């Protein structure tokens, strides 16, 4: 049953992408509709219980692949076209999105401040899986596309770290509000350090593979 479910999800993903390419519509729209259709609210073919305890691992691996793929296709030359705009998007823009969404959630949904801040942190992420398909069908200037692509990848990481910190510090009560900034900075530093280390190792491996001389062709 699990294999059939995974096959169904993959098939719907491929079909959504093909249909989106033909209709010139961002594929994320078809993916959302397909997810709702097979989800617990409609057909009920897929639910949280379907994957059991492996759901969190699958989500973690999927997010890692998405961010790696998005970061792999970022080019420093393109990001340097509008460095000021990109910096503002991933700092001031992220903060405004976080606090503004939190305020809206608290006011309009009548929730606690902690829940509002958690929802706001979740919605910081735009994601390369959303920005990429949109840029494929919407024509924008090169520097605008570079800023959007960079923001989609960087703010995904920011949102992921901030969500964990907000949940542990404010919602779960495992720290004080003053520790929020320090915990966020520490996790970001650790992530950047390990990310840079792994990226350096991958670069060295690929560079050596490219520089290795090919074997001379054999002649009869």
Automatic annotation (TrEMBL):
GO molecular function terms noted in the UniProt entry: antiporter activity
Membrane-spanning parts: 50-68, 89-109, 115-140, 152-172, 184-206
Primary subcellular site in the record, as a coarse category: membrane
Record keywords, A-Z: Antiport, Cell membrane, Ion transport, Membrane, Transmembrane, Transmembrane helix, Transport
GO biological process: proton transmembrane transport
Domain named Cation/H+ exchanger transmembrane: residues: 12-209
Pfam families in alphabetical order: Na_H_Exchanger
Coiled-coil residue windows: none
InterPro entries reported in the protein's UniProt record: Cation/H_exchanger_TM, Na+/solute_symporter_sf
Membrane topology: Multi-pass membrane protein
Cell location: Cell membrane
Descriptive protein name: Potassium transporter
């Amino acid at each position: 049953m699990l294999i059939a479910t995974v096959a169904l999800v993959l098939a719907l993903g491929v079909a959504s992408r093909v249909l989106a390419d033909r209709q010139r519509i961002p594929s994320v729209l078809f993916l959302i509709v397909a997810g709702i259709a097979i989800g617990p609210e409609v057909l009920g073919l897929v639910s949280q219980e379907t994957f059991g305890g492996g759901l969190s691992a699958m989500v973690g691996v999927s997010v890692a692949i998405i961010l790696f793929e998005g970061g792999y296709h970022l080019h420093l030359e393109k990001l340097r076209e509008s460095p000021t705009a990109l910096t503002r998007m991933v700092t001031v823009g992220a903060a405004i999105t976080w606090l503004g969404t939190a305020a809206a959630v608290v006011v309009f949904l009548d929730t606690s401040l902690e829940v509002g801040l958690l929802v706001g942190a979740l919605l910081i992420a735009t994601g390369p899986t959303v920005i990429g398909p949109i840029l494929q069908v919407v024509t924008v200037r090169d520097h605008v596309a570079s800023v959007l692509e960079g923001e989609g990848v960087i703010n995904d990481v920011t949102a992921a770290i901030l969500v964990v910190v907000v949940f542990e510090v404010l919602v779960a009560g495992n720290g004080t509000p003053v520790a929020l900034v320090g915990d966020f900075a520490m996790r970001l530093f650790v992530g950047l350090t390990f990310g840079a280390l792994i990226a350096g190792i991958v670069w060295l491996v690929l560079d050596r593979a490219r520089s290795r001389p090919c074997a001379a062709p054999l002649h009869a």
